[in-house]
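Thread: Newbie trying to understand structure tokens

Hi all, I'm a second-year student working on a class project, and my supervisor (Dr. K.) asked me to get a predicted structure for one chain before our next meeting. I've only ever worked with sequences, so writing a 3D structure as a token string is new to me. If someone could post the tokens and maybe explain what I'm looking at, I'd be very grateful. Here's the chain:
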Amino acid sequence: MSTVKDVYNYLDSIAPFGLQEAYDNAGILIGDPEMEVTGVLLCLDSTEAIMDEAIDKGCNLVVAHHPIIFSGLKRLTGANYIERTVIKAIKHDIALIAIHTNLDNVLANGVNGMIANKLGLTNVSILAPKNQDLVEEVAGAGVIGDLSNPLKTDDFLALLKDKMKLNVIKHTAKCVDTVERVAVCGGSGGFLLNNAKRAGAQVFVTSDYKYHEFFDADGDLIIADIGHYESEQYTIELLYKLVKEKFSTFAAHYTLQSTNPVYYY
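---
Reply by user tm_fold:
Sure, no problem. This is what the structure looks like when written as tokens:
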């Protein structure tokens, strides 16, 4: 028998929850930690549709990257999708674990390491290290790595589009002819721009850039905004692999639906 707490403890050994940023709300958000797990559904976002999928698959645990409860709840009346999702989870006795910035802040089995692997980067290291006693390896935000063979800028952008399954890339001016060193931060990574510059990156792959923020590239590198969901999509694959390999007392399921709220026409 494996409990919700057992899954939490295992995830904590991979990406210690103590590594989450101060603003974050990762951990067990809903449910009894001592409840036996009958099945787990892995996803990026907790939505009503995800809860329906969990019910259909007989899963009483959802492990999501993004916390559905982030800034706090004052009431549960079903007035918005957050309240409705929480209500549905409670009604159907579904526990929920969010593993967010703590998974961003580790290299091995982390969000950014997964992206670097998809892009074929080598010599990968943390872009903005932080001192942390919870783990022996260096933890921190973003990663930096090298392409085995330098690529022309257009060829790298084509590679990025292919490997990350992108419809579009929003990017700044092609101020370099060749790309060899690439910085990566899944999700909202604009705060790492100067780190990417100092690390010698020709391209900084991230998301959630606003119009005026693109000017901050200032001809030093190319900012490539690939979209929040797109940048983190492989996190589901990562979580599925980790949970499936560890636990044999219940089935693990990779969500079959996209929770991306952004569409392209």
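A couple of things are worth pointing out once you decode it. The longest strand covers residues 139-152. The domain at 4-103+233-254 is CATH 3.40.1390.30 (Udp-n-acetylmuramoylalanyl-d-glutamate--2,6- Diaminopimelate Ligase; Chain: A, domain 1). Feel free to ask follow-ups in this thread.
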